[in-house]
Amino acid sequence: MDPDPATRRSVTVTVAGPSCDVVCVGESMVTFLPTRPGRLADVPAFTRAIGGAESNVACALAATGHRARWVGRVGTDGFGDHLLDTIAAYGVDTGAVRRDPHRPTGVYFRTDADRTTDAHEVVYYRAGSAASAMSPRTVPYDTVADARILHLTGITAALSADCRALLYELTAPRPGRPLVSFDVNHRPALWHEGGAPEVLRELAARADLVLVGADEAERLWGTADAAAVRALLPEPAVLVVKGGEGPAVAFERPRDGRADTVTTVPAPRVDVLAAVGAGDGFAAGYLSAVLRGLRMRDRLRHGHLAAAAALTVPGDLAAPPGHARADRLAGLDDDAWGRLHLGPGWTSAGTEADEEVRTR
After folding, report:
1. DSSP letter string, 214-253
2. What pTM was computed for the model?
3. Which of 58, 112, 174, 303 could join 286 in a cystine, given CB atoms 3.0 to 4.6 angstroms apart?
4. Could you give the C-alpha distances from 10 to 4, 39, 45, 72, in angstroms and in order?
5. Which residue from 6, 5, 30 is spatially nearest to 101, judged by alpha carbons?
6. Catalytic residue list
7. C-alpha separations of 30 from 33, 48, 49, 116, 238 in Å
8. Tens digits of per-residue pLDDT, 15-45?
9. Do the bridges between strand 98-100 and strand 73-75 make them parallel or antiparallel, or are there none, so unpaired?
């Protein structure tokens, strides 16, 4: 019997070694971006885009040639059609996405102000969405089991009790489990009933790789100090504390159990066009470098570069730099990296001497 009577659709993946590089599980929504600055009450028109931390990461990875799958749940409405078509157009496998005829696809509206300012507004219409019905019953484990990396975020845990149960199921220890990547991605507005510090701490402790912003750690656990965050989260093999405009710090536990190896990489200077999507970009750039077997310094640099790509476009989702271009910039010596300055259009610039990319 179908465990999810609403869809009558099931997906079975035969596991014969990793057939997918990364599987990303979570909600994607249709996003409405303002055509001009101002309060939502005053903006006369919006343009349509897509948004969702997990699907953003999947799209960015697919755009650079990785085999990426997005697993989610959308309505049988036109917005669901748009999401599936748009995400698939990036080269992402959407075959495990389920359609729910009884619940809508989530949407949200936002202003173009910086999320860190009081002027920024976001209005979600996602309560009762199709994605909020994700659960261990509606997302079978075999839809993620064939991946090298399983990427999850704390946003999913805030959507419903069923979604939270799904994350606990997917992060449970089991033989042959993919490497579990967990981006804390704390969204205070979604945690109506509280509990975020405890739940996100527990889920992070069950992951192999954890990404968290220093500002998130401060809100959740009362400290933005990277070493203090590591003391609170000693379980993951790798912990990356992102400093926004400041450095990213990675703690990596050697297999022999010795003390962590600590790597610190400053962020390049970026002329920010829209302060959205940087966290998803960093995750995609970092995971791409993990898949390619790069050393920790370069993983962090690729994360910074992909974040810069997101910061220099107006929407949530940016085309990342190609591997050759990103490798060249990530390979700069420390002095040249410290002088790196990126502006809008830098991902398509031809040489380091272009106006958008400066190392002087």
Report:
1. HHHHHHHHS---HHHHHHH--SSSEEEEE-TTS-EEEEE-
2. 0.90
3. 303
4. 9, 43, 39, 13
5. 6
6. 280
7. 10, 7, 6, 22, 33
8. 345 789 999 999 999 999 889 889 999 999 9
9. parallel
